[in-house]
Amino acid sequence: MKNLLVIHYSQSGQLTEIIKNITSTITTKEINIDYHEIKMVKPYPFPWPKDEFFDVFPETFQQIPQPILPVPQHILNKNYDLIIFGYPVWYLTAGLPITSFLNTPDAKKLLKNKPIITVIGCRNMWIMAQEKLKVKLAQLNANLVGNIVLADRHINHISVITIVDWMFTGKKRKKFGVFPKPGVSQRDINESTKFGEVIKEHLIKGNYTNLQNNLLKKEAVKIKPFLILADKRANIIFSKMSTLILKKGEQSLSKRKFWLNFFNYYLLFAIWVIAPIVFMLFLLTYVFSIHKIKKDKEYYSSVRNTYNNERSLHK
Question: How far apart are CA 292 and CA 297, in angstroms?
Fold first, then answer.
């Protein structure tokens, strides 16, 4: 009998649906599956009031842990052969409930020396969030063996409009009857069962060496080269902005609110003005960057970790 643990956090319910579809084809007499949904002491609401949405930005990006409820003892005391770890992306970083969990003794106990498959449900930019998560997993001595990404397929500006509407109203609808439904498409969610079949085969064998390659054959990860550049550039700005907001917030709540409001307007400017310009520059230089783009796509589709490589060099 193999033991599989599924850990995830979902605010809207989308990631829960993805996880259930993936695990639906893993279920068998040979595999026991336990589920643990990460819960905050103070839950984040959905729909999300605008002020509260922006207020979590600095702590999310800086990965400052917030109080979460403990993992049940019956899960903590069981030995698992594999862990599926599902998470959303907030502000180019794993959601704050996820990073909060990873800073707990429970996470250290559960994930140590365990093979981990990450499952990401997001709008479009997830690459640097995954890189940060790789570092966290490595620090916990967990072994990342697979990654599955389900993202909104619509173009950037369309998905911004639809996701914001869904997030602030709680209604997964076709805005104005014209825009597509927000989030990961229902077709992609339904078809995610194909990943469970691959996972089941490797779990039963207890060998994950070629798991990611086999998941990639099922299109578990799709890389858009421009978003690699956009993600990296945005992380630089977000790092400076989150640091500034936290520093100003130490002085007074009003200053924190002022700079959060400034960040709100900056974000709008970046999405609607800066991003299109950067995209045009990317297209103009594409031919000169083909080799690097190919290497980047190969790396970010894999479960390799530069943090582990750097750490091994210093041993």
Answer: 9
Q: Tens digit of pLDDT for each residue in 147-183?
A: 999 999 988 889 999 999 999 999 999 888 889 999 9
What is residue 307's predicted lDDT score, i.e. its pLDDT?
63
Name the residue with tokens 């794993």.
94
Specify burial of residue 298 (Cβ count, 10 A radius: 0-12, 13-18, 19+): exposed
Alpha-helical (H) ranges within the chain are 14-24, 50-55, 57-61, 73-76, 96-101, 105-111, 127-139, 156-169, 186-191, 193-205, 211-217, 225-251, 253-269, 275-285, 290-301, 306-313
Residue 265 corresponds to which tokens in the numbers above? 């307007």
Q: What is the pLDDT of residue 178?
A: 86
Place of tokens 């068998």: 28
Say how far apart CA 205 and CA 190 lie, in whole Å.
26
Phi, psi of 269 (to 5 degrees): -65, -40
Task: Residues 2-224: name the CATH superfamily.
Answer: Flavodoxin domain (3.40.50.360)
